[in-house]
Amino acid sequence: MTQAKNSHASAGQLSQAPERGYRRIGFETRKFEQRREPYWQGVNEILGMGYDPADLIHHFPAFTGHVALGRFLALYEVYKQTLGLMGHIAEAGVFKGSSMLMFAKLTKLFEPESLTQVHGFDWFKGNHPDDNEKHLVDDNSYFESKERLEALIKAQQLDNVAMLHELDLSKDLPAFFDQYAHLQFKLVFLDCGLYKVVHHCIEHFWERLTPGGILLLDNINHETAPGETQAVRELLPGLQIRTFPFTQQPTGYIVKPMVG
Ligand SMILES: C[S@@+](CC[C@H](N)C(=O)[O-])C[C@H]1O[C@@H](n2cnc3c(N)ncnc32)[C@H](O)[C@@H]1O
What's a single GO MF annotation on this record (predicted)? Predict the structure, then answer.
């Protein structure tokens, strides 16, 4: 997710367009650059209108920008494509939980009697890029506390559907899957963008993705995360990568081919 680095203003607090937590070279990030300042001006105006924070929750389409809405519609579209397929849902890199909890709520709505659960993986330390990716993304960006996310999940009685796993996604998946060997997924969402993380995730999630299931990629072919494109090229060459014409990110997805 490149829209913004961390949390911005809370309700009632005015904010400017936030600093970006990533490097721009002016390819993909340039396409809608002219909309950025007017968008944030509008956010400022809304935050100054005195709405009750509960209004922002209950009437969210009145406030949320179309770009954010498009992202959630893409998650819905991809989720719908996996309905009826066996497996859980995994998200690698959960941050504040918006995508993870979107999937948990879709599961509640569309699979009321299935055992499908959403497993969110994160080390809850934010992004800490290696030296070779330090120029791309800010150290410490996208930090969120595990405790607050757990509390958010509990407050919505989602803790039987949404499970959090605190681990380093650049190295800890083999030990995790040794312990929970039965886990199989129908949908895996990668949202870290860092080469080592994406590489390790594809290595260990791909074999656990049900054929016909979907690997959803937030950053492929995006200038802010070349490591994601590189890892996909290395580990999954020659597969069709589709995209959504109505959203900027996720940038792509792969339907795992059937064997034979
Ligand atoms: C871009 S944010 C995820 C955004 C989220 N999917 C969403 O839709 O709002 C990236 C997340 O990856 C996590 N992360 C970065 N490196 C990691 C690593 N080595 N292991 C586990 N999590 C990592 C960060 O803590 C952060 O929460």
Answer: methyltransferase activity
